[in-house]
User: Which sequence fits this backbone?
């Protein structure tokens, strides 16, 4: 049984700080691994420890540079498979290509499915991730997928605001209503929705607010912040509708393009994110951004998977 295998954790180059934090929670050390790039751009991977029969967890979010980190993860999985690891779990806190989960044009790929096939063939036995953009992506895999929720981590911070002022949880679009409702229920807060119209990829125009935000602290909740156009537009609309203060809350801080400049110039008092994706040096300088770690959450999930205990207890 897996409970008798030796627990091993290793990391690619995408987010080694998160991997180290997970190891601190579990009381173990990262497996020594070489992950380098040759002068021609090819990736070299070498695992410098015995993993035969071990229960191995590979921490590697497929964030920017997405294709590089994805390929590196695939090579690590292949190396572990060829080294006779007992079971290999890919810990992918941020699953890249998740927004390309269906065909929106006649001759377009379903990229999220292709990534699932790639990782499965590379040698992954199960996947551990956080806040998939579309929960249906779990069905792209023919192996176990544990999709954790960052809600316990983010709610701990938000509840501090709830003690002082009345809070309303705001979904930036209709697609995020279910997520916002779950947060609002756990905080015993009210719910509002931003009606928006998307004009082009990575661009969205907020229109009006459905719900009462007047005199309240409005928390705009989303699973990720990419170029920040959507939530910054939402902040302006919320203030126009009488919100006393505006916060942003998201699991994955992608923060591409002009995101940092937009957030700095926005009406947000704080932007609460997690460390599923490491912040760039420029983002770390932004005084509005507050980072809450999911290392403890992932460590509990890894422990439960390793000991064949229930992972669903973490969803409560």
Assistant:
């Amino acid at each position: 049984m897996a409970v008798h295998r030796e627990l091993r954790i290793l990391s690619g180059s995408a987010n080694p700080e998160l991997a180290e934090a997970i190891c601190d929670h579990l009381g173990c050390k990262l497996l020594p691994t070489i992950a380098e790039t040759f002068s021609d751009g090819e990736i070299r991977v070498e695992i410098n420890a015995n993993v035969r029969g071990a229960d191995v967890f590979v921490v590697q979010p497929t964030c920017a540079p997405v294709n590089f980190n994805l390929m590196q993860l695939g090579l690590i999985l292949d190396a572990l498979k060829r080294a006779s690891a007992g079971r290999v779990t890919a810990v992918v806190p941020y699953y890249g290509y998740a927004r390309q989960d269906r065909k929106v044009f006649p001759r377009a790929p379903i990229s999220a499915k292709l990534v699932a096939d790639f990782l499965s063939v590379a040698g992954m036995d199960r996947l551990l991730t956080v806040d998939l953009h579309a929960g249906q992506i779990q069905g792209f895999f023919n192996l176990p997928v544990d999709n954790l929720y960052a809600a316990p981590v983010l709610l701990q911070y938000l509840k501090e605001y709830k003690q002082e002022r009345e809070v309303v949880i705001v979904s930036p679009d209709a697609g995020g209503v279910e997520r916002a409702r779950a947060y609002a229920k756990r905080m015993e807060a009210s719910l509002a929705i931003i009606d928006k119209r998307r004009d082009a990829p990575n661009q969205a125009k907020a229109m009006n607010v459905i719900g009462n935000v007047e005199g309240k602290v409005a928390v705009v909740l989303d699973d990720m912040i990419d170029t920040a156009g959507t939530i910054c537009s939402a902040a302006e609309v919320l203030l126009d509708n009488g919100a006393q203060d505006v916060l942003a809350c998201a699991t994955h801080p992608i923060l591409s393009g002009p995101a940092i400049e937009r957030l700095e110039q926005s009406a947000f008092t704080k932007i609460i994110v997690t460390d599923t994706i490491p912040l760039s040096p420029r983002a770390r300088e932004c005084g509005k951004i507050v980072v809450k770690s999911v290392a403890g959450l992932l460590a509990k999930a890894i422990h439960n998977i390793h000991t064949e205990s229930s992972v669903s207890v973490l969803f409560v």
The CA atoms of residues 12 and 60 lie 5 Å apart.
